[in-house]
Inverse folding.
């Protein structure tokens, strides 16, 4: 399903990003390709080891911009690319997004974690798993890493509890690579500008500083599929760093 945004809106380093996402059995087997082919040798799809790529980072880090630039790059090479954004990307997910970001009702950290995971479960079942199963590349604007950081650490729910909730929601499907766009909270705020802010964007600057610190801590301690990319400077320069880091 194509994404609709309503808000404001070398040498491969394959070892650094892992050798393939873990596909849950209930969503069907993903096509496997164990050869370490270069893109030049693979004409109809991205390397099997990089089918599912997630962008993470602070609000305003440039995730949406970079997801689109990477998708355009891969499409120009002839690949089918499916872009998704979170929360959302399905009819149900968009309802949950409204509840989470535009509503006034108080939400506790655990409620937030469960709602984000619920929207993600629908997205995996309806969009991500089918796309991966047919050999497309999926580029996600946020995924489980966001919940580990925002709800697990910053809201205080606990990283392990949030991880468990998401294992149920996603069936254990994790990205082959997660690109963390590194900017400071001040740089991200300047990019967001003075436009209408949602419930989480309205949090004070210290909240956003905590998010950035938590990303470094949580994702770096993860499964070794994290690629940290300097998100500062011109977006085309950042895009070139992303492609180099992913060897795409
Ligand atoms: N959240 C959560 O708590 N738990 C979860 O599990 C999930 C999410 C999935 C989603 O908000 C909120 O939900 C988010 C985390 C929480 N809240 N916060 N804070 P969203 O979907 O509305 O927004 P977002 O995902 O946080 O990001 P964003 O606002 O769309 O920003 P971005 O994608 O990182 O950046 P961008 O849209 O590409 O760029 C922002 C602006 O900067 C834009 O004007 C660009 O033109 C500009 N830009 C981009 N790159 C550059 C460079 N390189 N230089 C200069 N200007 C640039």
């Amino acid at each position: 399903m194509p994404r609709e945004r309503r808000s404001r809106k070398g040498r491969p380093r394959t070892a650094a990003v892992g050798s393939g996402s873990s596909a849950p059995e209930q969503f069907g087997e993903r096509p496997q390709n164990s050869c370490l082919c270069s893109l030049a040798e693979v004409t109809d799809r991205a390397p099997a080891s990089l089918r599912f790529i997630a962008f993470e980072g602070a609000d305003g880090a440039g995730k949406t911009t970079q997801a689109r630039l990477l998708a355009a790059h891969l499409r120009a090479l002839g690949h089918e690319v499916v872009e998704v954004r979170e929360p959302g990307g399905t009819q149900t997910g968009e309802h949950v997004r409204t509840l989470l970001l535009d509503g006034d009702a108080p939400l506790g950290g655990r409620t937030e974690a469960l709602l984000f995971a619920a929207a993600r479960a629908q997205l995996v079942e309806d969009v991500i798993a089918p796309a991966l199963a047919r050999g497309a590349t999926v580029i996600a604007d946020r995924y489980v890493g966001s919940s580990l950081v925002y709800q697990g650490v910053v809201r205080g729910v606990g990283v392990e509890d949030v991880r468990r909730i998401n294992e149920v929601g996603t069936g254990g499907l994790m990205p082959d690579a997660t690109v963390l766009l590194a900017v400071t909270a001040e740089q991200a705020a300047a990019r967001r500008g003075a436009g209408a802010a949602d419930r989480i964007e309205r949090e004070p600057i210290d909240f956003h500083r905590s998010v950035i610190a938590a990303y470094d801590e949580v994702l770096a301690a993860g499964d070794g599929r994290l690629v940290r990319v300097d998100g500062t400077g011109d977006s085309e320069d950042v895009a070139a760093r992303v492609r180099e880091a992913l060897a795409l």
